[in-house]
């Protein structure tokens, strides 16, 4: 007993490409998940891109070095004139 031709065409043109595509997508998703868990989630640049870790902004002190003290002394001496 042979299967009808439309069933063969259905399997060949619809079911096989659908199964092959789903296999490839699942394979890529599995390796992406493994790479994410093992490597990518620990990279600071990737964390910043995906918003996993927010950069903390720490303001710099107003007088943070010798140069800023020098310029501050110049501007304060100019204000006295």
UniProtKB/TrEMBL annotation:
* TM annotation in the entry: 12-34
Q: One Pfam family this chain carries?
A: DUF4750
Q: Which UniProt keywords apply?
A: Membrane, Transmembrane, Transmembrane helix
Q: Which protein, by its recorded name, is this?
A: ATP synthase F0 subunit 8
